[in-house]
Design brief:
By secondary structure, the chain is α/β, with parallel strands linked by helices. It has one domain: Purple Acid Phosphatase, chain A, domain 2. It contains 5 helices and 7 strands. The strands form 2 sheets. Strands 1-2-3-5-4 form a 5-stranded mixed sheet. It has a two-stranded antiparallel sheet with strand order 6-7. It starts with a helix and ends in a 27-residue tail after the last strand.
Length: 161
């Protein structure tokens, strides 16, 4: 099985994982992220697949409150380590595509932010607990006309020149 073998061998995700939490559209909401991850760990989940609009590695200059708080990405990495969760995410139309494309890839083809926070590039496939997953990526931004460059529109993101 390609994809998750290294994670299984390292013991980060147990081979007998039978349930994976699916999440999406967090849009950098730190409070929501903390709640969901805390409940997931309490309920015995070991792996989470986020299906887009997570907003990790988001340019802090657009959201000064994130920069002051240490950033959504830093808090997510810290909480995943504390709770022992593995988090795989797919990009959405509101994600920092240039930053994600520049991530170093591990031997399984995931972009690596931390040992527990992994980006699944478009077209990537992997297995967890015998279930195959695939990363298709986000749709074109249908809200492009309402956004403003630097606030809702980030150059290089789907739907933004």
């Amino acid at each position: 099985m390609a994809g998750m073998e290294t994670l299984f061998n390292l013991g980060i995700v147990p081979e007998d994982v039978k349930q994976v939490l699916k999440a999406g559209d967090w849009h950098g909401n730190t409070r929501w992220m903390r709640q969901v991850l805390t409940f997931a760990a309490r309920d015995g989940y070991k792996a989470i697949v986020h299906v887009g609009d997570l907003k990790v590695l988001w340019p802090d200059e657009f959201y000064p409150d994130f920069a002051e708080s240490g950033g959504f990405t830093a808090e997510l990495v810290q909480l995943l380590d504390e709770l022992g969760l593995v988090f795989i995410f797919i990009d959405g139309n509101h994600d920092a595509h240039p930053a994600l494309r520049n991530l170093p890839l591990n031997t399984d083809g995931f972009g690596v932010i931390s040992d527990r926070l992994l980006y699944a590039p478009r077209g990537h496939r992997w297995n967890i607990g015998g279930v195959r997953f695939g990363a298709l990526g986000g749709a074109y931004s249908i809200d492009r006309a309402r956004g403003h460059r630097g606030l809702g529109l980030v150059p290089g993101r789907s739907g933004c020149p």
